[in-house]
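DM from R.C. (forwarded with permission)

"hey, sorry to bug you on a friday — could you get me a structure for this? deadline for the figure draft is monday and I only need the backbone to look sensible"
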Amino acid sequence: MATQALSESRTKVTTAVDYSGSFVRGSYYSGQILNLKSLFFNPKCILLPMPHSEHYLQDFLNYLRIERNLARNTQQAYLDDLADFWSFSARQSVVEPGQVDHQHLTDYARNLKRRKMAGTSVARHFSSLRAYYKFLVMEGYLENDPTQFLDSPRLPSSLPKILNIEDIELLLDAIDTETPLGLRDRAMFELMYAAGMRVSEVCDLTIEQVLMDEDLLLVRGKGNKERIVPLGGEAKKWLVEYLAHGRSALEKGYFNEGIIFLNNRGKPLQRKGIWFILKQLAERSGLKKPVSPHTFRHSFATHLLEGGADLRIVQEMLGHVDISTTQIYTHLDSSYLKEVHSSFHPRARKR
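My reply, with the result:
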């Protein structure tokens, strides 16, 4: 059959079932095989049968994009999780949302466990399923929600990993600022630490968002929400240097919509590119701690609180909707205070 031939030609196909119907490629479907590049910058090759309910997922995608105003990467994460679930379900001859019951969800949970999926990933998969079924019930497509008693795994509480000031200086000083790429990297990481920006916010940052005369940044975060963040002296210095002497050398005539940080081909730098640059930089600097782009954001918040900044101000600069999300950094700050107390108070050490 045609679908079998197509599945054999794809190296990443997860499932192709022998019956007629519509198929999903990647995490999106509309009754035919689509090129995901036009919707998301994540062209996967997943075939997924959903013969009678193809409008459900399209409506759900519209709901995520329009009503919930979620970022593109978040939409993609929801759809990836649903693609994984329906791929598993198809092998159990479950192809309609109404066929899913508690036992099927339990079997899926066991399948995730057998695949040694991390607890955080399992929790995200379950969250996506709950959101999808809540939407189906809300829209009247289903009467009952089989996920209402689906429990996420208990996750161990863990504090964000941070770098101290010496670690950050070690990383930044290892950048060769005599080259355009070095100027870019120095400006980029200075900015991430100075403004607590997410890696996606850095990738999307445009020249018009930099209010240079006011020493401010207009940052567009999750759900396209905007916030104002101070630029900072060092970050401004290196950003000015990069814009004056680095960025123009990287432009290759491509239309880049004013994106500030470009790769060596003149196109906008992507998330994976920043991860790779930081990994190389950590190795070159001799830093022994694990580090990711988000580590700069964690460090930004923690160092502000250690310096006495108000929690509400830090919440505003991070773009957190709920202050409880920001409060995790107060635990880090408490740990720091305890460490200082035990190190320097004459009666703090146990005898």
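R.C.: lifesaver. DSSP finds 15 helices and five strands in the chain.
me: no worries. The chain has two domains: 2-138, 165-344.
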